[in-house]
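Weekly modeling sync, notes
Attendees: S.R. (lead), two postdocs, one rotation student

Agenda item 3: backlog of single-chain predictions. S.R. asked that every request posted to the team notebook include the full sequence so nobody has to chase files. The rotation student volunteered to paste the first one in as an example of the format we agreed on. Action items at the bottom.

Example entry:
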Amino acid sequence: MGERIYVEVEINTDLDQVWQATQDPSAHQQWDARFGEITYLPKDPEDAAAPQRFRYATRALPGLTIDGVGISAGERQRPDGTRTSALRFASDHSLSLIRSGAGYWRYVPVHGGGVRFLTGYDYEPGWDRLGPYADKVFRPLFGWLTAWSFDRLRLWLERGITPRRARRTALADAGARVAAVFVAVLLTRDLPAALTLGAAAALAVAGVLLPPSPVTPAARRCRRRPSEGRGAVAPATLARLERP
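Predicted structure, as returned to the notebook:
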């Protein structure tokens, strides 16, 4: 496996709200851009403590859906007041970028209010022999997408900005940045080529560095590296979970 992906965000809301938005599959699939559909599979009603099996699907391209299976187990009540959720997942789809993996969520109450919601996960890439090479590109993308999704969740719970609205504002924000570069090229097209390219490059850099709108999800608002004592260790339930 490669370098573990880690993302952390602080959400100014109560623990139950974060738990509900992340454990209810109908809510989870709204804010998490990594999944298009999450469906819980039936389990024995007499065994409430049994791990939850599920199916997931992601639309990679129009008309192309990649699916997989998973198993998860959560700890809603812990002596230290935190909560955890562990999962394993796998896909046998020939085009899946991820063959199998495992990860966890931690929910850590913040002194004074709020919840520090964090994840750590790793996976084996798909695509057989090409997988390790393709993963050098896609692993950073998965990390960015995870962080972007976490901030979209934060906006939903803190400010009531629905995931659908957040996606629209993100698209509008990206479109405005691209349009600014295009306009710069048009306005400077009669100047020497070096000046035209320089203006476009300057606006492109500014577009990347310019802070996003407060109502637009941004991966940069999330922490991407754990620090000592911040709950970055995987819960023990993960080691006990069987492969899906």
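Discussion: group reviewed the output briefly. Helices lie at 15-23, 25-31, 131-159, 163-187, 193-209, 236-240.
Action items: rotation student to repeat for the remaining queue; S.R. to check formatting next week.
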